[in-house]
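[Solved] Which block belongs to which protein?

Original post:
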Amino acid sequence: MSNTPEKIAIFLLTGPEAPCRLVHTLIWALDIVGRGGDAKIVLEGQAPAWLPEIGDPKHVQHRLYEKVKEQGLIDAVCKACAIQTQALEAAAEQGLRLVSDASGHVSLIPYTEAGYRIVTL
């Protein structure tokens, strides 16, 4: 086993229809960082649809989401997907970085070039 810290980019593609995937994304990112690694979360596909919901302090996962946000683990939100899921305003209000470098979506290449392994959920 290598002593090199893990670098993992988690691309969440599912929205509110799959709450388990959101929870795992958040927990795994915190776990990676807690063990000395580097984690980045990217919201693609249906995932930006979470933003209006999880940004609400009454949401059951809001505190976990805020912990992840406070640690700067949400690296990017797909701009095209945020528009499609009507979450563009929520992403902007929450100070999240909108990215559209691959035909309107988030490119995997900057992550792989920086040495990140890609995990999709």
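(Second protein starts here: sequence line, then its structure tokens.)
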Amino acid sequence: MKSLIILLVFCMHLLAADASDNRTINIDRIKNDNSKESMQKWLNGDFALETYKVNYILPYGYSDHDYGSIGPLKYDNIEAELQVSLKLKVGKNLCGLHESYYVSYSHQSFWQIYIKSSPFRETNYNPEAFVTIPINDTSSPFKLRSLKLAIAHKSNGQPNTEGVDINGVALGNLSKSINYVYTTLRMQHDSLITDLTLWAPLGTGDNLSDNPDLMDYIGYSSIKFTYFYGEHMFTLMGRGNLATGKGAVEATYSYPLHNNTNLYIKAFNGYEESLIDYDRSLTKLAIGFSFSR
């Protein structure tokens, strides 16, 4: 309960962030031009880091799936979830295609705040390097807008625990990871954005030794729709493996509340909500706040 209170206070602080902004700072009398420019950038928040995927904190997420236990510790099927995702532009137009080059980092955590000691059940780390190439397609029915090429790593940062047990209970292998490449083709039809993504693991062997059948559950492709209706934003994503019949569907809804804070609702059904659960299907509904869209 203590952790929940801290979490809610954190959310309230973000909602009221404009009460402690920099509007009272005056730089008109600063004589040094370099100092004045630096202060103006600081006041404007003009930094190189940009948001990438959705940044959110969801205090309440309910799953129909039993998350199991680690030794004597039994996980609850109600937990919090948070994600931080940022990108940095490192180059542009090197090939004359008006392309942009980025590195990014995303961090998704599943937080058991409703049980004693409030442990993080699972955290997934996802660094990427990618290039986006703009496409101004006005003649075809597809209305292509961009092509993205990326190389990425995703893991839960856990050690190999094969053969390890606690109090006579085998842990299995907690380590899960994959290196992969992917490409995303983006299309636009008025307020509907469609992203078609294809991906593949880099090699086999050690790359998938922690989860050799991972691709059976997540497949090699996905489609995501993003739709805007006024201030409302809806997304629907589907991915899967046609050969095995396994995959996942995720839907989200967001609506601006105050400043840059949005109501955020996420529903998930299928495999690989997190890497540790890649081979177990679950249905989950979570609600909270997002700070980017």
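Accepted answer:
You had them paired correctly. Confirming on the second one: The two ends are 29 Å apart (CA to CA).
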